Amino acid sequence: PQNVGILAMEIYFPPTCIQQDILENFDGVSKGKYTIGLGQDCMAFCSEVEDVISMGLTAVTSLLEKYEIDPKQIGRMEVGSETVIDKSKSIKTFLMKIFEDCGNTDIEGVDSTNACYGGTAALFNCVNWVESSSWDGRYGLVVSTDSAVYAEGPARPTGGAGAMAMLIGPDAPIAFESKFRASHMAHAYDFYKPDLASEYPVVDGKLSQTCYLMALDSCYKGYCQKYEKLQGNQFSMADADYFVFHSPYNKLVQKSFARLVFDDVARNASSVDESAKEKLGPFTSLDGDESYQSRDLEKASQQVAKPDYDKKVQPGTLIPKQLGNMYTASLYAAFASLIHNKSSSLEGKRVMMFSYGSGLTATMFSLRLTEGKAPFSLQNIAKIMNIEHKLKTRTEFEPEKFVELMHVMENRYGGKDYKTSKDTGHLAPGTYYLTHVDSKYRRYYAKK
Ligand code: ACO
After folding, report:
1. Phi, psi dihedral angles at 439 (to 5 degrees)
2. How do residues 233-247 score in pLDDT, each as one tens digit?
3. Phi, psi at residue 434, to the nearest 5°?
């Protein structure tokens, strides 16, 4: 099979959200800390009737319906998530209900977990399957679904929630350049979830930022080496049209792109212009550690990077800024933003993708876009995702109500024998929701 990649996409996110400027005010932090300091506009969260399973059910059902895919045509389904609902039973098995009802139980794949990286692992598994000798000609389906919630404190505004569903197969408008990809994997305690009684992670915020940037450097270096070995010519940022990043919050994305600009200067890439060399050259003598800590370098590189950031990164920032960190779905929701913003002008473009999961696992890979034929065309994908409408029809919570909900969810986490309020007034028709959990922890869902 040729040009294996993403044929179709659907995004679902809870319609419940809180504005970051209102949260700033409520938390009593300085004005601009979340909106400018973190670069976030708004944060989505699950109300008590939604969770990663219901979001996954909604995204998958909607994708199958809107692209008119017969559930029997799915041969592999992989789920990426770091939101633990059950330590043994995979989220994938919950989603099987959709397929069982249509008589299809012959579907490979289970869940992949490592912080925000699980979606990428799931995607690679599906792409590799289609490219392999065990492929049976049917589609792969990738689901990334997460609810990111943090304890009260500085990390709380970097929460978010959402699910992505992606259909995988040959002749895709979003094709993998499978040969060019580089990973960086290591052992770190930057963000982890050792307390099984709590949904909240233990997080070393500063360390996680440095780990992210170190992994980015390492992956970019590896990507360039592999590209140069295979293509026989140098790779630089000028060879890519768009850069899409895993987005815990937008400020880190700004810093990441600037870091790549600095990397090109440091490796003396031929595409780097004189003025960038002049401004960033002096910093190339810093050793690794110093360069991650240098505020002057950060400021200078962000300034040099700004015009290209606006062109090559900004179109892929809409949803992460509006929803917050969706963990495994974050990178793909960022990519969905690019399709939404530029769908009619992406023919032939190369998109660099950077996936990061704490702990840590990271990969840089690239996609080659073509317009494609309906229903699997970029324009149809943009139309079906209908992002503007989904963003516009959300319900904003007051901070008091949001905090109250977080307390309800804390108490309920890991619990049994409860009914949800069944208040689904805010949900769009077709949305799945949690109705109750019985005395044996079994979860029940209904469709609005
Ligand atoms: N106006 C404008 N900017 C402001 C203001 C203000 N009033 N106040 C603060 N800022 C800026 C700061 O200068 C800082 O910017 P900088 O990073 O360019 O220096 C930024 O806002 C954040 O302020 P800090 O004081 O550094 O924030 P704090 O330490 O309180 O928390 C953090 C930020 C560490 C990101 C926290 O939210 C966190 O731990 N989040 C979860 C971890 C995370 O997402 N890590 C990313 C990779 S791992 C993953 O994906 C989960």
Report:
1. -70, -15
2. 999 999 999 999 999
3. -85, 130
Residue whose CA lies nearest to ligand 1 atom number 35: 205
- Contact (CB, 8 A) for 409 and 149: yes
The owner of tokens 């179109």 is 315
Count of beta carbons in the 10 Å neighbourhood of residue 153:
11
Q: What is the mean pLDDT of the chain?
A: 97
Intra-chain end-to-end CA distance of the chain, in Å? 39
116 CB near ligand 1 (under 6 Å): yes
Whether ligand 1 lies within 6 angstroms of the CB of 32 is answered as yes
Strand partners, 357: 361
Q: pLDDT of 58-81, one tens digit each?
A: 999 999 999 999 999 999 999 999
Cα–Cα distances in angstroms (integers) from residue 383 to residues 204, 342, 387, 413, in the given order: 39, 12, 8, 36
Instruction: Give the residue, by CA position, lying nearest to ligand 1 atom 27.
Output: 154
Among 341, 156, 354, smallest CA distance to 252 is for: 354
Structural domain boundaries enclosing 413? 5-447
Q: What is the dihedral of CA 43, 46, 48, 52, to 10 degrees?
A: -160
Number of domains into which the chain is organized: 1
Cα separation of 52 and 431, whole Å? Answer: 12
- Give the distance (Å) from ligand 1 centre to CA of residue 304: 22
167 CA → ligand 1 middle, Å: 35
pLDDT for 312: 98
CA–CA distance, 161 with 44 (Å, rounded to integer): 5
Pairing of strands 350-357, 361-369: antiparallel
Name the residue of 38, 184, 301 whose CB sits within 8 Å of the most ligand 1 atoms, as the mutation to test its pocket.
38
- Asked if 279 contacts 262 with a C-beta cutoff of 8 angstroms, the reply is no
CB 53 within 8 A of CB 443: yes
Q: Look up the CATH number of the domain holding residue 179.
A: 3.40.47.10
Q: Which residue has the higher pLDDT, 289 or 216?
A: 216
Q: Which of 70, 248, 230, 222 is nearest to 159 (CA)?
A: 248
Q: What's the confidence (pLDDT) of residue 288?
A: 85
| Amino acid at position 332, single letter | Y
pLDDT per residue over 268-302, tens digit each? Answer: 999 999 999 999 999 999 998 899 999 999 999 99
Structure tokens at 188: 């770190």
Supply angle C-alpha 191, 53, 155, rounded to 5: 25
196 and 86 Cβ atoms separated by less than 8 Å: no
CB 15 within 8 A of CB 162: no
